[in-house]
Amino acid sequence: MQHDALYYPSASRRMATFGKRGMVATSQPLAAQVGISILQQGGNAIDAAIATAAALTVVEPTSNGIGSDAFAIVWVDGKLHGLNASGPAPQAATIEALKALGHDTMPNHGMLPVTVPGAPAAWAALSERFGKLPFAELLAPAISLADEGFPVSPVIHQMWKEAFNTYSAYDEASFKPWFDTFAPKGHAPKPGELWRSEGHAKSLKAIADTRAKAFYEGDLSEAIDAFSREHGGLLRKEDLAAYQPEWVDPISVRYKGHDIWEIPPNGSGIIVLQALGMLERLGEEGRDPVETLHRRIEATKLAYVDGFAHVTDLDAMRPTIDQMLDDDYLKSRAAMIGEQAVDPIHGNPIKGGTVYLATADNDGNMVSLIQSNFKGFGSGMVVPGTGISLQNRGWSFSLDPQHPNALAPGKRTYHTIIPGFITKDNQAVGPFGVMGGYMQPQGHVQVVTAMLEDQLNPQAALDMPRWKWTKGKTIEVEADFPNHLALALARRGHDIVKVADSISFGRGQIILRDPDTGVLQGGTEPRTDGAVLPW
């Protein structure tokens, strides 16, 4: 049912991009060019994804880095494969240890919220299982970008400046390497200003030459350990050496005749599946755009509070995935959606600052990959001389021992980053993702419903003005969100707040394949410096 004319008149600003032999979509044109060049050298979609991901650590350090986590969904030979490369808490990370240091909640900066980074291991694992080209060749373009420098793009400058201001508030010596690496001239690089990092290039070279072993067992792990010890961190080289990414089976729900796939917990993709599952059980939406928006917002809210209440490392979760996606449970949650906005509460299903990229090749392989520092540059901790900025994913842990997501040694925390994938009749339709912290599941719901319910093409789906639930009945909307819809939602009890900063509403990429012709159709995010490049 298409209601974009009533819904968002701006949804068709740009046309989708088409290609046949391959496609790469991501938030930085230089990184997209790296991916396309790998395809043209004979690499497959997995090779292109790895090369693009490595390049993004250089050209978008404001959102990800060598010290990031990663997740991926890969379509190869008619089957989906999931990779969870999020790292666990260090073995020394206990609630008692944090409280002894004077913390009642997890800090967001410094060494304490740093968990084991998984991104380098993800690249190596993907290459070993599915890649065609030598691993070192895939990282070579990123190494060149770091060594020679690149001109900073406008949106990246904005996020870089925000990080500069944030870290400037700290006077601890541990933050000095961040300024030495990312603000060597005493300011965040301006748009068009060249930024380079010799240390970043050397670290990528060591990772390339050792298939990431240098990061987890070699000189880089020694440097990370020494820096952590010097600045009161809990991460040790033993934590790094023990790490292995995990191959997992993606999970799904049926929506509008398609299967929507996400990585299972500790990722938050199950929130997307719950929301879409509720919407599917509510039946046809009809032609009223206000009712359509209201339903989608309410379903997302109800799913999100379930996620906050239950999602953590899968081994520590109380409800199972099957219980959270159970038909009767989703029907009961959907039944809570009425005419007026509700202040959502979680149910009981128990019976008794990220980068995203999508790639596709001519052989039918497709990749949905996401990697992240969590918030901006992450912890603000940069290992001197290496260019390695460490994520702050441990910030999501709770120090309440009764909370499902309570901190524990070796435990993986609730994770916001989620790659998505769509199939139909056991055939790949394509990868999609929307980065941006807690916006990600909401962005997934919005682009999937736009494409499969509103019949919008990928670019139009990404161009649509977005909404974001923040708490209770509060819904933030973008500045160009139609006033008549905002007022109508307010009459239904939603507290609507217009927000000028569009970056906070996520940044997505989509690639879809026509099952009959093999033609690729892609869209890229208008809220960032993104590019979708066909071949």
From TrEMBL:
SUPFAM superfamilies linked: N-terminal nucleophile aminohydrolases (Ntn hydrolases) (SSF56235)
Transmembrane segments: none
Enzyme Commission number(s): 2.3.2.2
Organism phylogeny: Bacteria, Pseudomonadati, Pseudomonadota, Gammaproteobacteria, Oceanospirillales
Example GO molecular function: hydrolase activity
Superkingdom, natural source: Bacteria
Protein name from the UniProt record: Glutathione hydrolase-like YwrD proenzyme
Keywords: Acyltransferase, Hydrolase, Transferase
Organism name: Vreelandella titanicae
